[in-house]
Amino acid sequence: MRRLLLAASFSLLAGAAIGRPLSYAQRVLPPSRAPGPAVEPFVAINAQRLALVHVRVIDGTGAPALADRTVLIKGGRIVSIGGPELPIPRGSTVLNLAGHSVLPGLIGMHDHLFYIARPDLNAKGHFEPPLLAPQMTFSAPRLYLAAGVTTLRTTGSVEPYTDINLKAQIDAGKLPGPHMDITAPYLEGKSNLFVQMHQLTGPNDARRTVDFWAEEGMTSFKAYMHITRAELGAAIQEAHRLGLKITGHLCAVTYPQAARLGIDDLEHGFFVNTELDPGKKPDQCTPGDGAATLGKMKAGGQAARALIR
């Protein structure tokens, strides 16, 4: 399938007062820049006015797809969608896309810039620690774009300054890639799971960590498996004070506990909720990482309805 990338401009900063702190949206979606030499090969059409004709439109609302539409774009923004009778402004570049579909750019809500590796396999094929998370600085942004993802949340960082600098290069038009909501390094408690993660020493450390990485430019946070309730509560309060969001891949803290603390969302569905795991102890992960709870929590059952509430 032939993919087409269009040069776009999302000018969210128009009218912003100089010196006023940037909003979350302005930090994630700054004005686009002219594509540099490394980006130009990925731009097939660079036109101020563009008309896509005879195209099938999927608008992302769940409504039925619309056939034989005309889509008018000006300065990277969709300005009108209509039928074949829609007038096309003079000077537009016209693309006949009969047989093709268009849809809004996808927003990836859990898109890492690394992968998990177990490089230390012995002769019997057994894994020996440490578990590593190698960075994919070059390939990940290109792969996400190829899949239609134009904005993403990294949902946990193992090379934070790499992520910060990568976002800056993409925003400046120097490298290809989606807009990025860059998540700070994992907020993890005492654990030997990932050797690349900082281990929090308590609530004060959680607050300091959130403050530090927000100042460095991170725009979201993620709590990890062995964080305690006290640490998570402190991190949530500090992130919210700064106007930022925090999610979690939890285990030691259950979903109801995290909800009461005010967490913004939870990753991996019901799978890592340990609320009903046998032998669950406060602020400790369970050996099954939530598998027992998932098995007990039948769809439509009392426990599932209570958790959803």
Topology:
Layout: H1 24-28, E1 49-57, E2 66-74, E3 77-82, E4 93-96, E5 101-102, E6 106-108, H2 139-146, E7 149-153, H3 160-171, E8 179-181, H4 203-216, E9 220-223, H5 229-241, E10 245-248, H6 255-261, H7 291-296, H8 302-308
Tell me what you see in this structure.
The chain has helices at 24-28, 139-146, 160-171, 203-216, 229-241, 255-261, 291-296, 302-308, and strands spanning 49-57, 66-74, 77-82, 93-96, 101-102, 106-108, 149-153, 179-181, 220-223, 245-248. With 309 residues, the chain is α/β, with parallel strands linked by helices. Helix 4 (203-216) runs parallel beside helix 5 (229-241). The longest helix has 14 residues, at 203-216. It starts with 23 loop residues before the first helix and ends with a helix. Residues 1-19 have low confidence and may be disordered.
